[in-house]
DNA sequence: TAGGCCATCTGGTCCT
DNA sequence: AGGACCAGATGGCCTA
């Protein structure tokens, strides 16, 4: 199933304010993230997240179960973790925006983004190798050396990961196929 | 309703 | 010591 940009949706307020840790920093929009579509999705998410934060997540120890200084440290740590995840999500969004041929109304999931980016990079690498390996006589660069380097990298990666890599010519085809499958919503 | 995706909390570990 | 990083747990929202 695919993740799509969702309309903003109100979420019921927390039923138990007693369980809501105090001193929560409100979510703030990430600096310079995406277009209006991304911003809308973000607003929707953060609105939901605020409620989820109040009652969701792992069970917290009851009142008095933790010292105040410890609680304060935990809250600060939570805030830092939240900011860290926001930065990570900003990076994901930035990555989504530089992957071409993706429909604007469909937000790629994180795993889709990473997979598509990987294959996109491979297809670009294959293109560069093709252009620099003698098929374009006008370019007298280090084509063969570049290709040798690429092959060494592939062997090293394959050896370490136990994976069999496709030849460079196949990456573009693989990338195109993947884009198509994502667009079809498979 | 099940499954996918996500945000958040949390405690452990690593790093500076 | 304190912050960054990581992974597990939990619960909400959405779509098929």
UniProtKB/TrEMBL annotation:
<dbReference type="GO" id="GO:0007423">
    <property type="term" value="P:sensory organ development"/>
</dbReference>
<dbReference type="GO" id="GO:0045216">
    <property type="term" value="P:cell-cell junction organization"/>
</dbReference>
<dbReference type="GO" id="GO:0002071">
    <property type="term" value="P:glandular epithelial cell maturation"/>
</dbReference>
<dbReference type="GO" id="GO:0061564">
    <property type="term" value="P:axon development"/>
</dbReference>
<keyword id="KW-0238">DNA-binding</keyword>
<dbReference type="GO" id="GO:0051674">
    <property type="term" value="P:localization of cell"/>
</dbReference>
<feature type="region of interest" description="Disordered">
    <location>
        <begin position="1"/>
        <end position="88"/>
    </location>
</feature>
<dbReference type="GO" id="GO:0007186">
    <property type="term" value="P:G protein-coupled receptor signaling pathway"/>
</dbReference>
<dbReference type="GO" id="GO:0072560">
    <property type="term" value="P:type B pancreatic cell maturation"/>
</dbReference>
<feature type="domain" description="BHLH">
    <location>
        <begin position="72"/>
        <end position="124"/>
    </location>
</feature>
<dbReference type="GO" id="GO:0048312">
    <property type="term" value="P:intracellular distribution of mitochondria"/>
</dbReference>
<dbReference type="GO" id="GO:0007030">
    <property type="term" value="P:Golgi organization"/>
</dbReference>
<keyword id="KW-0597">Phosphoprotein</keyword>
<dbReference type="GO" id="GO:0005634">
    <property type="term" value="C:nucleus"/>
</dbReference>
<dbReference type="GO" id="GO:0042593">
    <property type="term" value="P:glucose homeostasis"/>
</dbReference>
<comment type="subunit">
    <text>Forms homodimers or heterodimers with TCF3 gene products E12 and E47. These dimers bind to the E-box site, however, heterodimer with MYOD1 does not bind target DNA.</text>
</comment>
<dbReference type="InterPro" id="IPR036638">
    <property type="entry name" value="HLH_DNA-bd_sf"/>
</dbReference>
<dbReference type="GO" id="GO:0044331">
    <property type="term" value="P:cell-cell adhesion mediated by cadherin"/>
</dbReference>
<dbReference type="InterPro" id="IPR011598">
    <property type="entry name" value="bHLH_dom"/>
</dbReference>
<dbReference type="GO" id="GO:0019722">
    <property type="term" value="P:calcium-mediated signaling"/>
</dbReference>
<protein>
    <recommendedName>
        <fullName>Class A basic helix-loop-helix protein 15</fullName>
    </recommendedName>
</protein>
<dbReference type="GO" id="GO:0001228">
    <property type="term" value="F:DNA-binding transcription activator activity, RNA polymerase II-specific"/>
</dbReference>
<feature type="compositionally biased region" description="Basic and acidic residues">
    <location>
        <begin position="65"/>
        <end position="82"/>
    </location>
</feature>
<keyword id="KW-0539">Nucleus</keyword>
<keyword id="KW-0805">Transcription regulation</keyword>
<feature type="compositionally biased region" description="Basic residues">
    <location>
        <begin position="1"/>
        <end position="12"/>
    </location>
</feature>
<dbReference type="InterPro" id="IPR050359">
    <property type="entry name" value="bHLH_transcription_factors"/>
</dbReference>
<dbReference type="GO" id="GO:0042149">
    <property type="term" value="P:cellular response to glucose starvation"/>
</dbReference>
<dbReference type="GO" id="GO:0006851">
    <property type="term" value="P:mitochondrial calcium ion transmembrane transport"/>
</dbReference>
<dbReference type="GO" id="GO:0046983">
    <property type="term" value="F:protein dimerization activity"/>
</dbReference>
<dbReference type="Pfam" id="PF00010">
    <property type="entry name" value="HLH"/>
</dbReference>
<feature type="compositionally biased region" description="Low complexity">
    <location>
        <begin position="154"/>
        <end position="170"/>
    </location>
</feature>
<keyword id="KW-0804">Transcription</keyword>
<feature type="region of interest" description="Disordered">
    <location>
        <begin position="154"/>
        <end position="186"/>
    </location>
</feature>
<dbReference type="GO" id="GO:0042802">
    <property type="term" value="F:identical protein binding"/>
</dbReference>
<dbReference type="GO" id="GO:0030968">
    <property type="term" value="P:endoplasmic reticulum unfolded protein response"/>
</dbReference>
<dbReference type="GO" id="GO:0007267">
    <property type="term" value="P:cell-cell signaling"/>
</dbReference>
<keyword id="KW-0678">Repressor</keyword>
<dbReference type="GO" id="GO:0010832">
    <property type="term" value="P:negative regulation of myotube differentiation"/>
</dbReference>
<dbReference type="GO" id="GO:0070888">
    <property type="term" value="F:E-box binding"/>
</dbReference>
<dbReference type="GO" id="GO:0051649">
    <property type="term" value="P:establishment of localization in cell"/>
</dbReference>
């Amino acid at each position: 199933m695919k993740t799509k940009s969702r309309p903003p949706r109100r979420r019921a307020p927390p039923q138990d304010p007693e369980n809501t840790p105090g001193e929560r920093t409100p979510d703030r929009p990430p600096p310079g993230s995406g277009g209006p579509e991304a911003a809308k999705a973000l607003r929707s998410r953060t609105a939901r997240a605020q409620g989820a934060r109040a009652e969701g997540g792992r069970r917290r120890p009851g009142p008095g179960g933790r010292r105040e200084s410890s609680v304060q440290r935990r809250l600060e740590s939570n805030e830092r973790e939240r900011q860290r995840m926001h930065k990570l999500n900003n990076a994901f969004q930035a990555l989504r925006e530089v992957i071409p041929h993706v429909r604007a109304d469909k937000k790629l999931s994180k795993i889709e983004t990473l997979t598509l980016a990987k294959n996109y990079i491979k297809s670009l690498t294959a293109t560069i190798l093709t252009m620099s390996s003698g098929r374009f006589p006008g370019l007298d660069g280090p084509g063969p050396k570049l290709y040798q380097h690429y092959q060494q990298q592939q062997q090293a990666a394959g050896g370490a990961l136990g994976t069999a890599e496709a030849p460079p010519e196949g990456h573009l085809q693989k990338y195109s196929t993947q884009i198509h499958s994502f667009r079809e919503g498979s």
